[in-house]
Amino acid sequence: MLDALLDRSIVFSFDRTGHRRHARRFAAHDLDVDLRGRVCLVTGASSGLGVEITRGLFTRGADVAMLCRDVPKGEAVRAALLRDGGTGSLAVHRVDVSDFASVRAFAAGFAGRVDVLVHNAGVLPLAASTTADGLELAVATNLVGPFLLTHLLWPRMLASTEPRLVHVSSGGMYSERLDVEALFAPPPAKGYDGVVAYARTKRAQVVLAELLHERFPAVRSSSMHPGWADTPGVLTSLPRFHALTRAILRTPAEGADTAVWLAASPAAAHPDGRFYFDRAPQDTHRLARTRETAAERAKLWDALCARIGVEPERFGG
Ligand SMILES: NC(=O)c1ccc[n+]([C@@H]2O[C@H](COP(=O)([O-])OP(=O)(O)OC[C@H]3O[C@@H](n4cnc5c(N)ncnc54)[C@H](OP(=O)(O)O)[C@@H]3O)[C@@H](O)[C@H]2O)c1
Predict the structure, then answer these.
(1) Which of 205, 255, 215 is CA-nearest to residue 50?
(2) pTM for the whole structure
(3) Which CATH class for the 2-314 domain?
(4) Which of 63, 80, 119, 307 lies at 20 to 30 Å from 50 by C-alpha?
């Protein structure tokens, strides 16, 4: 009863006390797992949650490819992770996920099977901008670039005995309804709201994880949100929020925990496209007004395929 009330409060669920309360029901051995031989790709591995997701996989023996737009920054993180120890391998690859050419170049040069792909890279833009591919920056970074990467790596994920795909979304998505028109409209010259643009992409990621599961259940697709974690991204994108909540924010490792669990734990082998928080599936709506129709979901799929230049029926090859 008290737990339900605290969870409904949001603050005392997304914050560090929420993590500690929820962690009491975590199964002790869920992450006692040997990932040797598993090939895991993590985008945005150079900062915040991405560092901790990488650490969580690497220290359990996985071979982790760190997909970073800033290679020297990625290499510095890699050196620190190697110093801390781990039995797997770590390699940094240059990928700007907001840029189709960069995503294509990476996918063309990356050989071998992919067991795990974690779409962690994300941005909450402070101002409106449009990428070379004609997309608003948050849409390109959080949604369409990752979708292109998923598509290009799909045959290599299907070569895995247990492929897992994790989208790092946000609790902010609860405030927005799926709005495909708005996602692909040019950002307004005046009155751009990065928080809304971001939350729309995070809603779309959650729907996309469900759509991928419905269409291709062989790949274990999921989305998750980390709660509120103290990362460089929160500090720079939401400085006032950070100043107000600093004392109660989760550590990056606490924020990353559910993504690591989804990527690695036998207990998370069948996430069924669902949206997770603190290792538990969540309702994807808190407000009736955010519920989308089946037609809107289909429209998202078609729009994403159109943007990456793939026939909607041909995504899976
Ligand atoms: N922290 C939270 O409380 C929180 C809450 C909800 C959701 N999230 C989500 O968690 C994920 C990680 O966020 P974070 O808090 O760890 O933020 P962060 O510290 O800013 O890390 C974001 C990572 O994404 C990378 N990135 C951004 N744009 C990229 C691009 N175009 N190509 C490749 N990499 C790019 C960044 O690279 P650089 O190092 O080069 O900047 C960085 O490694 C995001 O998807 C975010 O939306 C976080």
Answers:
(1) 255
(2) 0.98
(3) alpha beta
(4) 307
Q: Whose CA is nearest to atom 16 of ligand 1?
A: 48
pLDDT digits (tens, 9 = 90+) for 47-76: 999 999 999 999 999 999 999 999 999 999
- Residue nearest atom 46 of ligand 1, based on CA coordinates: 122
From 69, 104, 236, the mutation candidate for ligand 1 (largest count of ligand atoms within 8 A of CB) is: 69
Element at 235 (helix H, strand E): helix 232-237
pLDDT at 294 over 90: yes
Return the HEC string of 141-164: HHHHHHHHHHHHHHHHHHCCCCCE
Residue 288 CA to ligand 1 center (angstroms) comes to: 29
Q: Which of 174, 192, 198, 276 is catalytic?
A: 198
The answer to whether the CB of 42 is under 6 A from ligand 1 is: no
- Say if ligand 1 is within 6 A of residue 226 CB: yes
Cα–Cα distance for residue pair 80/17, rounded to 1 Å: 28
Tally the residues of the chain.
317
295 pLDDT more than 90: yes
Q: Catalytic residue at 198?
A: yes
Q: What is the 3-state secondary structure (H, E, C) of 16-40?
A: HHHHHHHHCCCCCCCCCCCCCCCEE
Residue-wise burial string across 64-102, b where 16 or more C-beta atoms lie within 10 A, e elsewhere = bbbbbbeeeebbebbeebeeeebebebebbebbbbbbeb
Residue 187 Cα to ligand 1 middle (Å) = 21
Rounded distance from Cα 166 to ligand 1 centre (Å): 14
Q: What single string gives the DSSP state of each residue in 76-112? A: HHHHHHHHH--SSEEEEEE--TT-HHHHHHHHHH--S
**Domain range list for the chain:** 2-314
Q: What is the C-alpha to C-alpha distance for residues 275 and 120, in angstroms, rounded to an integer?
A: 14
Dihedral angle, C-alpha 76, 78, 81, 85, nearest 10 °: -130
Taking a C-beta distance cutoff of 8 angstroms, is the pair 129, 80 a contact?
Answer: no
